[in-house]
């Protein structure tokens, strides 16, 4: 059974206002959607969680913790860096990754859900 929308009256003012509202937040929506899309991958979400918890980590540490090869970790980190979710700081020969300041507002509510007192919410 197919249901269709049978609109008797279109509120033109509401439609116009909603279009303007979407235009105002369009860039932010794109940024948030990109962040959530990347964080939607289980491995990358774990990496972001660890980076949030520890402030900064190198690929070798993430490799040891997650039981993955350094090249596999590096590939995930590159995707996160290309999207602007993480940034790097090179100290000697070691590159440390951390969550970009601008993405903390997007990711922090997700990390709050992972805290033990919020387990029942999930």
Automatic annotation (TrEMBL):
SUPFAM superfamilies: Winged helix' DNA-binding domain. Gene3D superfamilies: Winged helix-like DNA-binding domain superfamily/Winged helix DNA-binding domain (1.10.10.10). Keywords: DNA-binding, Transcription, Transcription regulation. The keyword Disulfide bond does not apply. GO terms for molecular function: DNA binding; DNA-binding transcription factor activity. Pfam families: HTH_5 (PF01022). InterPro entries: ArsR-like_HTH, HTH_ArsR_DNA-bd_dom, HTH_MetalResp_TranReg, WH-like_DNA-bd_sf, WH_DNA-bd_sf. Residues 24-121 form the HTH arsR-type domain. This is Regulatory protein ArsR.
């Amino acid at each position: 059974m197919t249901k269709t929308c049978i609109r008797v009256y279109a509120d033109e003012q509401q439609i116009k206002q909603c279009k303007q509202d979407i235009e105002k937040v369009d860039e932010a929506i794109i940024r948030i959607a990109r962040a959530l899309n990347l964080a939607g991958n289980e491995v990358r979400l774990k990496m972001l969680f660890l980076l949030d918890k520890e402030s900064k980590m190198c690929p070798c540490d993430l490799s040891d913790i997650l039981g993955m090869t350094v090249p596999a970790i590096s590939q995930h980190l590159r995707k996160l860096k290309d999207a602007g979710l993480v940034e790097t700081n090179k100290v000697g020969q070691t590159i440390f990754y951390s969550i970009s300041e601008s993405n903390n507002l997007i990711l922090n509510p997700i990390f709050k859900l992972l805290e033990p007192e919020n387990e029942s919410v999930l």
